[in-house]
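User: Please fill in residues for this 502-position structure.
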């Protein structure tokens, strides 16, 4: 267990060759830390196939920044130019999270409805697919092998060994299909790619907006290249200083808190399908029935629905949050009559994005030597979230790292930012994926650099929650004006789309 809870400290070099790039987009030298040969690339812009109003391109970069003359890959990039060139401030580089979400897709398809008109008018919105993701040398694995993955909750040493053997076989398979980028999919490598992109765009400084796992990219960029930032906003933050146990427990606490918020919402909301009932009792009874194989899958009534599937469904609903939809679904499952006979085994869940573990397991040292150690970690999760039985998505992520090499490219360590401008952080009080204490801990590590603005409501996304959250971010990004308020009140959308206090 000692290795599971150890948060490793490390130091990052801050040297990278800087050079000038002209407006045409020729990259300046983007060399490795401490000097060395520079990498020169050109962004070859062209209209994006999905939306010709946006531009798509690629940037040739080294797979291993310690060997810039070695193998390379093409970083996929998209740009949506500022709608009002006369008022243009510069580049707003965006990462929407994951790991595994596409920044190119965000810039091309989602940005116009996500950001306010003022942000769209004054910034070039630039998204990129981090290495191993989307169109940037995507991680590839054999689908047949992915479909045979064992459960993430091994019951004994034999099942744990099967999980380890599968993870090792999958890692070998993915490395064979993906090439050298697989071993360099960590966030520190992405940070160097991001700075090379800054130079290729011809920008002395950039403005950055990172959400969820994109906050880790932002944090580590600010730590290493803070002087190259104009401004940075981070929403739904990740704390990379936590040891494995603390990370798993804090994630479980966030899921459990969201469950209790759902229960309270249902008690005060007449339209909740479970209003007037003991929602916690309904939930616990439903999970016990699922444990006995007595709940059928509405998509395939002959197949059982497991308790893990139900908690994962609830966890996804808390992201919105879609409490009404979750209540309706739970009421429907609770009303099922006992099955006439044994149900078929559960339908397999879709396999995770192959890139997810390639990134996650190189950013986090989460390993267990045997089932006993793994079971202790799982038990700690369940103690923190007895109703949600841990954090489903995080547990799945951690289970995929069992059997990976002990050495990690980017292990957990305290965050230390010394040269960046003031950074605006936003975080929901009731975020299912990351408990609010996670953001508070990141803020404590960087108190001289970060300003934390809580959103008092629920859900994982923060920016578009209310006039308060959107206005605070917009004022900061455009005018560098930090919020003077202590927090943003919780709101729910009315029928006409106008926010009101919850």
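Assistant: Residues filled in for all 502 positions:
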């Amino acid at each position: 267990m000692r290795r599971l809870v150890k948060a490793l400290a490390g130091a990052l070099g801050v040297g990278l060759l800087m050079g000038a790039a002209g407006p045409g987009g020729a990259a300046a030298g983007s060399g490795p830390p401490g000097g060395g040969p520079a990498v020169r690339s050109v962004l070859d812009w062209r209209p994006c196939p999905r939306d010709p109003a946006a531009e798509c391109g690629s940037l040739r970069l080294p797979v291993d920044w310690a060997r810039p003359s070695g193998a390379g890959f093409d970083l996929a990039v998209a740009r949506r130019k500022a709608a009002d060139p006369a008022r243009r401030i510069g580049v707003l580089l965006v990462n929407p999270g994951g790991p595994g979400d596409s920044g190119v897709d965000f810039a091309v398809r989602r940005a116009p409805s996500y950001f306010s008109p003022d942000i769209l008018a004054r910034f070039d919105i630039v998204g990129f697919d981090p290495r191993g993701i989307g169109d940037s040398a995507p991680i590839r694995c054999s689908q047949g092998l992915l479909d045979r993955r064992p459960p993430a909750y091994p019951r004994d040493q034999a099942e744990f060994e099967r999980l380890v053997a599968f993870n090792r076989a999958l890692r070998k398979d993915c490395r064979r299909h993906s090439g050298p980028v697989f071993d360099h999919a960590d966030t520190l490598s992405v940070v160097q790619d991001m700075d090379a992109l800054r130079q290729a765009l011809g920008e002395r400084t950039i403005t950055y907006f990172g959400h969820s796992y994109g906050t880790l990219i932002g944090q580590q960029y600010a730590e290493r290249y803070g002087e190259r930032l104009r401004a940075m906003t981070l929403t739904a933050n990740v704390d990379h200083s936590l040891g494995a146990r603390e990370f798993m427990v804090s994630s479980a606490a966030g899921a459990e808190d969201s469950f209790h918020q759902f229960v309270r919402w249902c008690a005060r909301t007449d339209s909740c399908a479970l209003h007037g009932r003991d929602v916690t009792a309904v939930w616990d009874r439903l999970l016990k029935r699922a444990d006995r194989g007595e709940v059928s899958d509405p998509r395939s009534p002959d197949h059982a629905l497991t308790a893990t599937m139900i908690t994962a469904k609830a966890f996804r609903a808390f992201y919105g949050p879609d409490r009404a939809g979750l209540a309706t679904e739970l009421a429907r499952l609770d009303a099922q009559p006992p099955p006439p006979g044994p149900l078929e085994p559960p339908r397999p869940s879709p396999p995770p994005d192959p890139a997810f573990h390639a990134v996650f397991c190189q950013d986090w040292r989460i390993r267990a030597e045997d089932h006993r150690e793994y079971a202790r970690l799982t038990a700690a999760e369940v103690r923190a979230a007895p109703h949600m039985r841990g954090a489903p998505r995080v547990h799945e992520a951690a289970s995929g790292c069992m059997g990976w090499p002990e050495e990690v490219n980017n292990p957990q360590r305290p965050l230390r930012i010394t040269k960046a401008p003031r950074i605006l952080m936003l975080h929901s009080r009731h975020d299912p994926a990351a408990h609010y204490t996670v953001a508070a801990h990141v803020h404590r590590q960087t108190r001289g650099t970060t300003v934390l603005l809580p959103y008092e409501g629920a859900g994982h996304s923060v920016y578009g929650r209310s006039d308060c959250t959107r206005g605070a971010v917009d004022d900061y990004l455009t005018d560098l004006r930090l919020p003077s308020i202590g927090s943003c009140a919780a709101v729910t959308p009315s029928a006409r789309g106008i926010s009101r206090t919850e």
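For context: The two ends are 43 Å apart (CA to CA).
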